[in-house]
Design a protein that fits this description.
Shape: flat
Distance between the termini: 100 Å
Structural class: alpha+beta
Strand content: 15-25%
Largest sheet: 5 strands, antiparallel
Number of strands: 5
Number of domains: 2
Length: 178
């Protein structure tokens, strides 16, 4: 009886360990899962906004906690031959630090292995040099538009600050006359 119970307990522990190993292993992220990760990690969201959606996105378990979160997100851009990893770190119990942990070039073997799992984006369908150049030009134009909008916003803020400063100065001089 005892022996059967010990064997049963051993099987349960073995299955639970295998389940935990699968839960922590790397896995590919769907578009919705990537968007959810981007909502939690500003550095990741900014990178994707600048460079477009990745060809493949994965999540990997991080064994080096703390201060790191329990996982990192790795993006693969096959055309740029890049692998970029993002993670969050905890400060005072909150995951406030979102950073790019590494950026590495991809080898030809890695690109060949990843290309079977790559998401088909409009720019990668057909993928000729002309299409890639046009896509890069569109991304550059969109980035220039965002910079222009940010410059306009900064100029409005500067004008507002200058008006407040002028008003404060005139109020100061008026208070001296009284």
């Amino acid at each position: 009886m005892r022996r059967g119970m010990i064997v049963g307990l051993g099987v349960v522990v073995l299955l639970a360990g295998a389940g935990m190993a699968n839960a922590r292993a790397e896995r590919e992220l769907s578009d919705d899962e990537l968007r959810a990760e981007m909502a939690q990690n500003r550095a990741l969201a900014a990178y994707v906004a600048r460079n477009g959606d990745p060809d493949v996105a994965e999540t990997h378990f991080l064994a080096d906690v703390p201060p790191w979160d329990d996982h990192e997100v790795t993006l693969y851009y096959l055309d740029m031959r890049k692998e970029i990893g993002f993670a969050r770190a905890y400060i005072l119990g909150r995951p406030d630090v979102q950073i790019q942990r590494y950026e590495r070039p991809l080898t030809d073997q890695q690109i060949a292995a990843l290309s079977t799992r790559a998401h088909k984006r409009p720019s990668s369908m057909g993928g000729g040099p002309d299409e890639r150049a046009e896509d890069a030009a569109r991304r550059a134009e969109a980035a220039a538009d965002r910079i222009d909008a940010a410059a306009d916003s900064a100029e409005r803020a500067a004008n507002k600050a200058e008006a407040i400063g002028n008003k404060a100065e005139s109020e100061f001089h008026r208070s001296l006359r009284k």
